[in-house]
Amino acid sequence: MDNQQKLQQAFTVALGVQPDAVTDSLQYNTIPEWDSTAHMILIAELENVFDVMLDTDDIIDMSSVKQAKVILQKYDINFA
Amino acid sequence: MTIAEDYQSALNALLDEPVYGLSQSEKKTRLQSVFALLHQHHSQHCTPYHNMFRQPVSHNTPLEQLPFMAVRLFKLFALKSVPDNDVVKCLMSSGTSGQVPSRIFLDSLTSRMQSKALVKILQQFLGKQRLPMLIIDSPDVKGADGKLNARAAGIQGLAMFGRDHTYALNPDMTLNSDAISAFCQRYQDQPVLVFGFTFMVWQHFVSALKTSGITVHLPHAHLFHSGGWKKLEAQKVSNETFKQQLLAVAGISAVTNFYGMAEQVGSVFMECEQGMLHAPVTAEVLIRNPYDLSLVKTGECGLIQVLSTLPYSYPGYSILTEDRGTVHGVDDCMCGRSGTYFTVQGRLPKVEVRGCSDTSSSMGSGA
Ligand SMILES: [Zn+2]
After folding, report:
1. What pTM value is reported for the model?
2. What would the DSSP string read from start to end of B180-197?
3. Given this structure, which CATH class describes domain B1-73+276-350?
């Protein structure tokens, strides 16, 4: 699996949404599945999948799928 | 720019300032601009607010002349300043049966700003890293159906600072000794975060540990607690006793109280090394005479009014609480933090007794 697929799977698992719902434009708090509780599950899932330790600024800044990629790139996780 | 855009840019600019760094005069100027925008917004989008407060408010209106709303109005009315479709979360104070809970309606903006402000404040005490977290509560505290009770909301706010979240209590509020032992074994040599509501920590952790025979040793833990001292005062438990006992039963020496409430999530007043509660850059506190509601002098006890720049989706930026407190000074606390510092003396006598944990609608009561 490449990083894009891993990211999509992490969102799918953490939020309980269909894979095709995970697009760059998907934003926090715009669907019932991505609320503040699911957000913490998502953070834990991303940390597991990519073996990174996200800090509290990352949690606040992770407002969309697109933004998640930007944040993960800080930790040398690159998306083609 | 629209009011909403002006408000967001003013609030974001304020959040970029140091949490305890602005001088009081600079802070007042900044706050007045934000509150003038909030007053306009709520006047236009919340009819009850408009009907109650017709006086003009501008960026020149001093903080003490801003309108304020009694906290119980949030129990009596469904107050909101955004369209129903924009409400993403309804926060309920979990009153016991027969009590009407407060209902606080949050839109995506307010919810986001609450998290952002809370993180800024707590980073001052915890840094940016997230720590293994022991929660002194039961996993059952989480409500269902999108209505979040105040205790669950408080835990959720702090949970951003944790990882490997571990609940210390069973659903019946007894100690979950397996979970606690595993947590202690795994993390006793490293910094950890412990959070619980003041009464829960005392009754279901400190007191329960004493009689249980379970050994807890978390010498690198930092415990944060909030929710009020009312029940502990009845048991003659002071802040000093609370801290001593936590050290005795769990080896925890870093203990920080904070004052905050469900009606203003994200605005928390943290206890400093001097035992004083500090207003962050996004909030202010005023003390009023309970009889004529005039401002009292520094050092005098009265009713606490809390001002927060965060409530946009509901008209709760200026609330007169039912808690008693005393401002001790401004910009000159021995700890070095700028701004207003105060202590809380507990609830005003004879007001409606709040829900089963004091946390129900007031998530804090300070030192
Ligand atoms: Zn201080």
Report:
1. 0.90
2. HHHHHHHHTTS-EEEEEE
3. mainly beta
